Amino acid sequence: MIKVSNLTKKFASHISLDDVSIEFNKNEYIALMGPNGAGKTTLIRSILGYYHPNSGNVSINGMDPIKQRIEVLDKISFVPQLPPPIKLNLNELIQYIEASSNVDKELIMHYANEMKLDLKANLNKSFFKLSGGMKQKMLIAISLAKKSNIIIYDEPTANLDPVARDDFYRLLKQNEDEKILLFVTHRLDEVKEIVNRQIYMDLGKIVSDEIV
Ligand SMILES: Nc1ncnc2c1ncn2[C@@H]1O[C@H](COP(=O)(O)OP(=O)(O)OP(=O)(O)O)[C@@H](O)[C@H]1O
Which residues form a coiled coil (predicted)? Predict the structure, then answer.
């Protein structure tokens, strides 16, 4: 369970999260929406322990994502809005993920194949030299192979072509059981069939929260 309690996060005098309280439970597939600058990514990053809040706190299965960062990140699959500038080639990246997060290499290969990413042809290529869509396919393949109970996606389809988007949503549907899936999106039409809860944020607050 993810529990956010009275969370306020300011950057200088700007309030990005304004006393936000919300819970996410297993079997919830959540679309987190709202205009640019509403605070969605700040909320996600706070859940992942990237930010020290000005007040309030976050708990993930009873753990503090700042104090127990490694244990918390081990429980979560996360695909960010902008892929990180990883210099490792894909082979090294897979080996690193396999060793650090105990993710099965064959499963990464399987999901990469399902996302139509030709992993074998690109194994010696640096991650940062892949196209934007290829990077997202790789991160999605890793996120699905990790088999986490908490999956957080921050606009993961931004660079994907329509075929890759369809592949991604098909794989997500296969993967739905007993999870929390938190999905930041501007395209409700794309995720409508997958989500069962829709949350809107604006000006650092939750302005609506509906079970659908
Ligand atoms: N690291 C930071 N330093 C300063 N201000 C920040 C930082 N991160 C976010 N902000 C500010 O916090 C506010 C919320 O930003 P956030 O990225 O959470 O919005 P968002 O809802 O994810 O927007 P988008 O839909 O554009 O991705 C914005 O005004 C942004 O400028």
Answer: none
Report the half-sphere exposure of 108 (CA within 13 A, side-chain side): 22
CB neighbours of 127 closer than 8 A, spacing ≥ 6?
83, 86, 87, 88, 89, 90, 93, 135, 138
How close is the Cα of 11 to the center of ligand 1, in Å?
9
Query: Is a pLDDT exceeding 80 seen at residue 23?
Result: yes
State how many domains the chain has. 1
Distance CA 151, CA 189 (A): 20
Going by alpha carbons, the residue nearest to atom 17 of ligand 1 is 41
What range does the domain containing 20 cover? 2-211
Q: Which residues contact 174 (CB under 8 A, 6 or more apart)?
A: none
Helices within the chain (DSSP H only): 40-47, 69-75, 90-101, 105-114, 119-122, 132-145, 162-174, 188-191
Across the chain, mean pLDDT equals 93
CA distance 90 to 190: 29
* CATH number of the domain to which 59 belongs: 3.40.50.300
Cα 168 to chain centroid, rounded: 13
pTM of the model: 0.93
Q: Which atom of ligand 1 is nearest to the CA of 34?
A: 21
What pLDDT, on a 0 to 100 scale, did the predictor assign at position 177? Answer: 73
For ligand 1, the distance from its centroid to the CA atom of residue 65, given in whole angstroms, is 20
This model of the complex carries an ipTM of 0.97
